[in-house]
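Q: Fold this one first, please.
A: Sequence and structure below.
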Amino acid sequence: MTELLFRDDAYRTDCTATVTEVNERGGIVLDQTVFYYTSGGQPGDRGVLTRADGTEIRIGTTIKADGTVIHVPEDGQPAPEVGESVTAAIDWEFRHKLMRMHTAMHLVCSIVPCGVTGGQVGIDKSRLDFDIGEHTLDKAAITDALNALVAQDHPVRAEWISDAELDSNPDLVRTMSVQPPRGSGRIRLLKIGETVDLQPCGGTHVRSTAEIGPVQISKIENKGKRNRRVNITFAA
């Protein structure tokens, strides 16, 4: 199992790692990594693996397949050897935008009192789909409330609970179509402030809401009788 260093420190940008596998398609498995893999609507990290001789292997994305974290090289990259030591470094600008966006999406969840039916994190635009029922959404009102929470500089931190604790608090799960992964015995929660937001999430986030910067709801789309898509962009 690859040790997921980003779980404990989303701001760590590099690490030394050992290649444990290179699969038939060239995917690279490491014993530990700072690269977040695609999950929960957040894209996998991209970056560079640097070999001892200085040769660079550009990583286009990171995924998880059959329980294994795979660093997927861009086309035409050299292949490392199993047992080789490399330095793994993420594209920090790309990751940090995703951290800011993902945290902003949690704030939107705290503002819109409806179940989440889907979502996607992006560096320029993100979206959340809500089952609104009889509720109505106002773009300007959500934008104002969102930026107020950003400006209040709430701390953002991770907490862990057991599977049993989650079972006894089902309202923590906001997503209607996807349940948090179980089986490891514990579930990671993201907590914003004392009362702003608390829900299961394995993604990477900023340390405080002020780090998000100005954001806006760019569009609210009608995706069905009950479903509304809320699009989020950076305002500056």
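Q: Good. Now the second chain.
A: Here it is, same layout.
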Amino acid sequence: MQEDFHYYATYCAAYISGFDHEESLDIAYSAQFVDLCTKALLNKLGAPLLAATTQSQLELANARTDIIGLQDITRIWASFHFLPRDLYAQKQHRTKRYMRKYRLICGPNGDLLVDTIKLAKNKSLQAIGISMHVLADTWAHMYFAGTPSLVINNTDYDFYEFVKEGEDYTKVQVKFRHSASAPDDLEKHIYTNSILQNNENSIMNLGHGRAGHFPDYSFAKYCYLPAWDDYKEMIKDNPNDYFKAFTQMVYGLKFLRGEYETFEKNTYDLISVSSYEQRIREILEKRQLNACNDWKAFGEELSGETIEDFDVNKYHEEYLNAPANEKDNTSIGKFVKAAIDQKCMVSNKIFESGNGLAGFSKVGK
């Protein structure tokens, strides 16, 4: 997902769930900050590097792909962007090496999602924002894994999108190219992706890089033939999946506010969202590279308040100027604490399942 959903749509979900305007802004900020909190940024702030929730293009280009490097990559991407659905999934006649990656395939409503939401219970607004980012990405990034893998994450020539025309869909072949400076062309169905590398562990094979940003677009409905599913046609319906993500966020946020005693899988707050469903679906189905303006307008109608544009530097001075013994009480300090907790929880769960791809962390044990 992109800023449009992680920041503006998360604000909308938080406000509908009962958080006030300022609280919703803080939750939304942290949800979006997950996509920007690199080691380079943390180093600039003098904050713990363990709290990194993403990697910049430069960091990825320089990343090691030996076991230590792969563990660092997997800890970040599996913990925050490609949360595994089933760490104990079974598939016949596969090697242990294959299964380690197969079990990291992302998807919604797994046990780790429940663990993620419960981990944020009675914690800071920043922890709540992180959990909402993770929840949302389980829907956007399903079928891809947060570890480099050609066999799991590759796409091929047979990749099509369904373009809605009236009440019907037209199936159009997607054209992928590697051109980092050129924007995706929705009219011609041309999308930028990573360069094909036959090395299984190449960083080009991380997550949905082989499909570019296409899986992040809310309007995208597409099909392809993943190798991990024996080349059977897989249909991904983002407009419906993103709507489920939104309603699950509302339910999860109400749990985190204390409205519900438990958080259950496959549960969605359709009632609270029902009066807004048509508006939300219109935003989700609109073919555009960025839906920030539409989500922002919707959020401002909900609260009657102005939603400031996302500013990555918003809380940096507060953290930099805080005395050493007060940094943990700043917004960035709370984000750092929550990010470390999430990363340690997920990496340890992966390790406990018998999978060493994310390493092991003593912090948080």
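Q: Anything worth noting on the second one?
A: The two ends are 31 Å apart (CA to CA).
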